[in-house]
Input
Amino acid sequence: MTAPTTDVFFDFLCPYAWRGIELAAVLRGQGHAFRLRHFSLVQGNHEENGGKEGVVWWLTDQPLGEGSPYQRNSLAAFLAAHAAAQQGEELHWAFTLALFRAVHEHKKTLDEAAIAEAAQIAGLNLEAFAAARADEAGLRASLRADLAEAAEIGVFGTPTFVLPDGSAAYYRFENLTRDPETALVWWNLYGEVLRSSAGIATIKRAKNRPAQKA
Amino acid sequence: MTAPTTDVFFDFLCPYAWRGIELAAVLRGQGHAFRLRHFSLVQGNHEENGGKEGVVWWLTDQPLGEGSPYQRNSLAAFLAAHAAAQQGEELHWAFTLALFRAVHEHKKTLDEAAIAEAAQIAGLNLEAFAAARADEAGLRASLRADLAEAAEIGVFGTPTFVLPDGSAAYYRFENLTRDPETALVWWNLYGEVLRSSAGIATIKRAKNRPAQKA
Output
């Protein structure tokens, strides 16, 4: 029997997504099942995508090396992650965590050097990783499937968790935990909000009264 | 001894604020203290107020009877509520609830007829109410104090609750309760989110996976 799976949509650019992925990683250690999915903030915030016709500008239609540093770096990182995913779920998680930590914990740029180092730290088969990365069209198709599903769900920020029951919400929090008990409390509170009979749509801090960092 | 007071910022135009005020009203019956405060959605969403310089366009600077129906009706309702408040806290609450119910439960227009009927249902001294409403400058000053504090806090939607500890967040939910036990559960869950050690900034549903109405 497999546990019901929660999809977590993220962008490597986002420090809140990093904390969300760390949370999910801790929960995986307690038997919870999460699937790594990609949502592009650059695409989501692109001026051409504001209209009623949905997504017009896709990150996956952009050449590597074009656009803003955010665009270039996030596209390269997403494609690399889809290449890493071909080495199995555990190595996909290890690569994702290593790349997130490089950028948001160790404050490195999300570039080729960070990708190479994350691959090494994760323990990927580097030859197979390089070979997988060479199939750019295949990786783009795989990324496009994530981005299309995110658009269908109406993801607008990361991390967004999609629970097995189909409910989905952006969950933004300021603090990092790698403690199993704390992670479970934070996760259960999120689930309680989504399942509440109140039908909670939004809880969001007033602009000048931000959440407190620990 | 008085209970620590939570401020609730609302606009009569907003159905979510209505549910929030009903929730607060039920909790008042259990000894919780809430203070009625006004935030103007028309002002908050006004195109002149998008910049860094804060509020440029104030609802309180607009003549009665000018602008969109939303602007006209909400200004008149706010001023009427400040007049009702002069008859004491309980009658202020009764008037606020009656006016909210007229608009959002009985689907009436937020106009002079609705205000007059709410005053009657609430049991206001109608002569004193009329006299208080005639002091338009005083009511505008009183409303302005609410709007200025909302701007200082960074309120952006209603209902927004400001807890005694200073934390403040928009709390949007789809369902109505007048059941004391349910109200307490919904309220405690909101408080738990604001007090969580995660430092929760936002929980917000994905656009195409809305919260379920009961």
Notes: Chain B has one domain: 5-195.
